[in-house]
Amino acid sequence: MAIEVRIPTILRTYTDGAKAVEGAGGNLSELFADLDTRHAGIAERIVDNGQLRRFVNVYLNDEDVRFLDGISTKLADGDSITILPAVAGGMR
């Protein structure tokens, strides 16, 4: 099962600069564990205590997984995952 994972700039140090990588898993938790076997340390930047980190948004085929089953969201061959860190701040 091949799933494309789009990597944000801030996490590309874990993927040797790759903008997208392939992974496998039946759900998001398994996918992130699989990614971590090839890109050590990336999972801990996305997942904390078995849940998605608060300021990391994950999309399955352009749908926010927080409105699906979160870290337990089921995946299928050919799905596309986008990881987006939340951006905050600005000028007063």
Question: Would you give an account of this structure?
Answer:
This protein has 92 residues and is α+β, with helices and mostly antiparallel strands. The chain has one domain (3-85): Beta-grasp domain (Ubiquitin-like (UB roll), Roll), CATH 3.10.20.30. It is 17% helix and 27% strand. The chain has two helices and seven strands. It has helices at 28-38, 42-46, and strands at 3-6, 20-23, 47-48, 51-52, 56-60, 63-64, 80-85. The strands form two sheets. The chain has a five-stranded mixed beta sheet with strand order 2-1-7-5-6, covered by helices on one side. Strand 5 (56-60) and strand 6 form a beta hairpin. The radius of gyration is 13 Å and the shape is globular.
Give a nutshell description of this structure.
With 92 residues, the chain is of the alpha+beta class. The protein is 17% helix and 27% strand.
- Major sheet, described briefly? 5 strands, mixed
Mean pLDDT: 93
Rg, alpha carbons: 13 Å
First and last CA, distance: 47 Å
List the SSEs and their pairings.
Elements: E1 3-6, E2 20-23, H1 28-38, H2 42-46, E3 47-48, E4 51-52, E5 56-60, E6 63-64, E7 80-85
Parallel strand pairs: 1-7
Antiparallel strand pairs: 1-2, 3-4, 5-6, 5-7
Keywords:
Ubiquitin-like (UB roll), five-stranded mixed beta sheet, 7 strands, 2 helices, alpha+beta, 27% strand, two-stranded antiparallel sheet, 92 residues
